[in-house]
Amino acid sequence: MDKFKQIFSGLTIAYGQYQPGDRGENGTKQKGKAFIVRKTVTDELWTNHLEGKGAALGIIPITENNDCRWGCIDIDEYDLDHLSLIKSIRDLKLPVIVCRSKSGGAHVFLFTKENIPASLMQSKLKQMSIILGYEGSEIFPKQTEILVERGDTGNFLNLPYHNQMKGLRYAINDTGSGCTLEEFYQLYDVYSRTKEEVEEIKIEKEKIEEAFTGGPPCLNKLASIGFGEGSRNNALFNIAVYYKQSNPDTWEDEIVKANMEYMEPPLSNNEVQQLIKSVNRKGYDKYRCKDAPINSVCQSGLCRTKRFGVGFGEEEMPVLGSLTKYTSTPPQWFLDVDKKRIELKSEQLYNPGMFALACLDQANKIVPVPKPKDWKQHFLKPMMVELQEVEPLESLDPINELTGLLQDWTTNRQSARTLDDIFNKLPFTEEGFTYFRMEDFYSFLKKNNWDMDKIKTGNLIKRLEDIFVEEIRMTIKKQTPRLIKINTMKKVEPSTSKEPYHQEHF
Q1: Which pTM value belongs to this model?
Q2: CA triplet 242, 246, 247: central angle to 5 degrees?
Q3: Equal CATH topology for 2-199 and 397-487
Q4: Whose CB among 101, 242, 347, 460 lies 3.0–4.6 Å from 215's, allowing a Cys bridge?
């Protein structure tokens, strides 16, 4: 366990788990839920993982210091030819280890003998993914920095060797055979590298000209390996959508050429003309990503960054990473925009215009603003599929923060001596209840960097159990102001250490 723990060390204040989905009425398995547990990663968790007790352990590779000792290329391709992948890796002299993923794909690990910057790890793995032909695959660590002070944790990866060799995640050697845990340790000793050695890894490959410049990666991938006879019509339909966007004046001619060049055998002239009519219909010129052969080589994340990919526009969208939701009230959202981690409110995530402003404010990124429909369909929905949820830090939960500020305002500051003094912007306490005007308390909140609007703040006050009583009108000096009535909160006296002070000499 100690060796395994050392190899896969990462963030220590939280870990990940995956809850499998239930089976639906038709017997199909529903997608599960990934979530992060905000607790210390204990030795018991490491031991239970190797012994197969409970769920597999998910470790977040990036630490509080924004460095890491391992990273991974997640190749999510079913029935992957692992031996062929390993041969390519060894031919290129890349110091990585291939593990089978649970889905039958591959987790390609780069291990280091010391902590290195997460940015360096991510950069090298991205270069490797391109040279191996898997550009757009998920890279761990997904972040080059995490906002720990805001409760951020980053994203986790389920580790191999859950229940050791009895599980579905294990290393594969150069002959294509699965490795025992001890054999995996031997591979680690051979391929793990120092920071200096990682920096010296040379990854060079001639740039391959794209068949469909700025287009979906799936089309360029299929152009190199072949489109397949059984799905030529759908393949050509997607090519037609690409040309209609990239070459609007000549796209019909381009699709005729593409049919002769890429389809084997080519579709008949009548089929091509029917296809052109279909693409010309308003609202039908959209990529069919879920149909063969596109679905087998889809790289949706990378596609959304291409000028003529899904959700295309005048400008390319930056790479949007994995979305993390912190289940506070209201929720917090964290997202990677290229290599910058930003924090979002729900309305900023939902509205593409507000999202663009958040990117400008926090990441110094000018991003295009897609139509709301395109934003939801091509960006927001795919991000929600891989959503990870995290319980928030209690100190950062708005309800807890609001409770503390309310206690401070009503007990530690000047109070009204009579009900009339409420007009002096003071809270009034009598017979176990405290009364105040919402606008006065809200002014206090704004002075303490509270960023929630007044209406949402008022609704949040009503949710304070055992504190909020009612909202009432009372006659004061011939006026009837609307007042918040709460149960009087106890004053918290500051505590001081009883230890005598000892002056230190240096």
Answers
A1: 0.62
A2: 110
A3: no
A4: 242
Instruction: Supply 442's token pair.
Output: 């809200």
Whole-number pLDDT of residue 396: 59
Span 231-251, pLDDT tens digits: 888 888 889 888 988 888 899
- CA dist 62 → 194, 283, 325 (Å): 17, 43, 18
Q: Which pLDDT score is estimated for 318?
A: 79
142-146 contacts, C-beta under 8 A, 24 or more apart = 142/321, 142/322, 142/336, 143/62, 143/118, 143/321, 143/336, 143/341, 144/62, 144/66, 144/117, 144/118, 144/119, 144/339, 145/62, 145/66, 145/118, 145/341, 146/11, 146/62, 146/64, 146/66, 146/341
Q: How many whole angstroms separate alpha carbon 185 and alpha carbon 39?
A: 27
Residue 239: what residue type? I
The amino acid at residue 200 is E
Domain residue extents for the chain: 2-199, 217-297, 317-390, 397-487
Q: In CATH, what number does 397-487 get?
A: 1.10.10
Condensed to tens digits (0 to 9), the pLDDT of residues 296-333 reads 777 776 777 787 887 655 466 777 888 888 887 778 89
CB 141 within 8 A of CB 61: yes
Q: Which CATH architecture has domain 2-199?
A: Alpha-Beta Complex (3.90)
